[in-house]
Design goal:
Layout (H helix, E strand, L loop, with lengths): L2 H20 L9 H23 L17 H14 L5 H15 L28 H23 L6 H11 L1
Helix pairs in contact: 1-2, 1-4, 1-5, 2-4, 3-4, 4-5
Length: 174
């Protein structure tokens, strides 16, 4: 996807994830307090999600684009960072959704296993980054990503707890 698509994806993700983490659909009653909490949560999420969503394209300045920073080892680093250092929560969501958008939304795909393999993986659903349909594909992919995040949050484990607590909860369920 192009830079505009990743920015659009990141903004929509911050808004949608803010709603997912703040609004319980089973008991939500709109009030001024709930509106304030929602705005606060969106504000907290915006910077880390946007930075994570834009970070993989830093490899356009060095290395091999869609290889150097578009792979599972880089995602693992961002997943482990909150576990080790206790900060940068939600940056991993931006990075992961960037990968999904590049694999599902564009024709080229990404090298998931780089540097072990330069093979790029994609799905046949993508469009060219210059396509007039690129923005629509970005919105559709983002809505699907938010659906998955909502499913995880409501049915598997809360996304607003630490990754260590989420791992413990997930392990206990298995």
């Amino acid at each position: 996807m192009n830079k505009k698509g990743h920015v659009l994806n990141a903004i929509l993700l911050a808004l949608g994830l803010g709603v997912i983490l703040t609004v319980d659909p089973r008991s939500f009653e709109p009030t001024m307090d709930s509106a304030f909490l929602l705005a606060q949560k969106i504000g907290q999420l915006s910077l880390p999600v946007v930075l994570g969503a834009l970070f993989p394209d830093v490899d356009t300045a060095f290395g091999k684009h869609r290889k150097t920073l578009h792979n599972l080892p880089v995602l693992a680093i961002f997943l482990s960072f909150p576990l080790i250092f206790g900060n940068l929560h939600f940056v991993w969501i931006g990075v992961a959704t960037h990968y999904v958008l590049d694999m599902v939304g564009s024709k080229r795909g990404i090298a998931l296993f780089y540097p072990l393999s330069p093979q790029e993986y994609d799905l046949p659903t993508g469009v060219a980054t210059s396509s007039k349909h690129a923005d629509a594909v970005t919105v559709v992919v983002t809505v699907a990503e938010l659906g998955v995040l909502a499913g995880v949050h409501y049915y598997l484990f809360s996304l607003d707890v630490s990754l260590a607590d989420a791992a413990a909860t997930f392990t206990a369920v298995l």
